[in-house]
Amino acid sequence: xxxxxxxxxxxxxxxxxxxxxxxxxxxxxxxxxxxxxxxxxxxxxxxxxxxxxxxxxxxxxxxxxxxxxxxxxxxxxxxxxxxxxxxxxxxxxxxxxxxxxxxxxxxxxxxxxxxxxxxxxxxxxxxxxxxxxxxxxxxxxxxxxxxxxxxxxxxxxxxxxxxxxxxxxxxxxxxxxxxxxxxxxxxxxxxxxxxxxxxxxxxxxxxxxxxxxxxxxxxxxxxxxxxxxxxxxxxxxxxxxxxxxxxxxxxxxxxxxxxxxxxxxxxxxxxxxxxxxxxxxxxxxxxxxxxxxxxxxxxxxxxxxxxxxxxxxxxxxxxxxxxxxxxxxxxxxxxxxxxxxxxxxxxxxxxxxxxxxxxxxxxxxxxxxxxxxxxxxxxxxxxxxxxxxxxxxxxxxxxxxxxxxxxxxxxxxxxxxxxxxxxxxxxxxxxxxxxxxxxxxxxxxxxx
Length: 448
Description:
The chain has three domains: 5-57, 3-methyladenine DNA Glycosylase II, Chain A, domain 3; 64-313, TIM Barrel, CATH 3.20.20.20; 326-444, Rossmann fold (3-Layer(aba) Sandwich). The radius of gyration is 27 Å and the shape is globular. α13 (346-359) links the parallel β14 and β15 (363-368). α5 packs parallel to α6 (165-175). 40% of the residues lie in helices and 16% in strands. By secondary structure, the chain is an alpha/beta fold. The protein has helices at 5-11, 25-33, 47-57, 104-116, 140-153, 165-175, 190-200, 211-223, 238-253, 268-271, 275-287, 300-313, 346-359, 375-380, 386-396, 417-423, 439-444, and strands at 64-66, 73-75, 93-99, 118-121, 124-127, 130-134, 158-161, 181-185, 204-207, 229-232, 265-266, 292-295, 326-330, 339-343, 363-368, 406-409, 428-431.
C-alpha cells in the first residue's frame, strides 16, 4: 500500500536544506506522496531508503521514456481521468508500422511520410513521434536490415516488434543505444524478453489477451526487475479496447493498482479494415487513453486531424491555447498593405489569419496578448480595450512597416473605436467585419 506523506517524512533526513526545491522536508514528503515530486531531488537519501520509498514516490501511471535526444517520446505519468479535473501531461506518440515483408517502395513511402508529414499550429510543429518495425518475415537478417534502414533515415524513437527473443537480440545489437521499445513480452517469452530489457536498458511492452491475463504477467515481469513497461491488453475490437483502456486508467488512478499503472499501446491499424475507420479509432484512443497509437500509413488527410485533436486534448484547459504577441505578415505585405488587429486566442488567430490568406490581399495582422482569450471575452475582461491596444500598437513597430496609419479593429468591438482614436490620435480607426468570414470581401475594398 502506498505510504502517506507523514510515513515518507519519517524516512527523510529532515535537514530542511531546501535543495530539493521545497522549503522543508515535510512539504517535499507531501508532494512525493501525491506523485508530484521526484525522489532523486533529495541529495541525502541512501540507496536503501530510495528503494523503500520508490513505490510511494512513483506516479499512479509510471513515466516511460522511449528513445533519446531531443526527439525522445515520454508517455504516462497521467494523474486524472478527465482533463478538466487538471490536465493531461504527455501526448500519445503517433506513428506507423513498417513490416519487413513490405515491398521496398512501401517501406520508403512510410519513412518519407513520417519525415515529411508535419504541420505548424499555434507555434508548435505537429508531426509523427515514433515508428515501429515488425519482423513479419521471421528472418533475422531481413528484420535487422529494415531496422537499420529506418534508423538511418529517421531520428525518431523506434519500436522493435517480434516475439522471438533471438531476433529481438539481433536488432538490439545495432540500435540499443537509441533506447527502443521492445515489443513484446508474453506468457511464452516473458523471462527472455525481460532479460533483454535489463541487459540493454530499454523499455518493454507486455502483451496479453485480456486484463485478467495481463495483470499477473506484469507482476511476473516486475519481479524479474523490469520497471519501465508499456501495456497491450490484446483487445480484439474497439468496444473491448475502449473498455480496457478505461479500466486500466481507473485501476491505476482510483485503486492504485500498480500492475496496471503503465501507459498503453494501441493498434487501430489492425482493428480497422479501411483508413477512415482506422482514423476514427485512432481519434478514440487519443481521447481514451492511448499512450502509443500505431497506424498503417500517415497520409496528410489522416494525420492533420489526429495531430490537431491530440494538441487540443493535451493542453491545459485552464490555460487557453494562444499565439505569441506580435506582428504577423500574411502574403508578403508591403508599406501600403492593410493592418488588422485581433486577440491571441489561437482559434481566433487561425480563423482570422485564414480568412485574410483566403482574400489574397497581403496584410499585416497585429496580435495582442489577451492571455489566450477571444476578442469578445478579452474585451469584457478589460484586456482588449483602448488602454491595452494603443500601447501595443506604439511598441509593436508597425509604423516602420507601413506608410499609412489605418488600423482595422474587429466589428464586434466597434464601441471602442472612438476612445481608441483618442488613444491613437495619429491613426484612423476602421471598424472591420463582425464575422471573420466577411474579411475577404472587406479587404478587397481596401484602399490605403
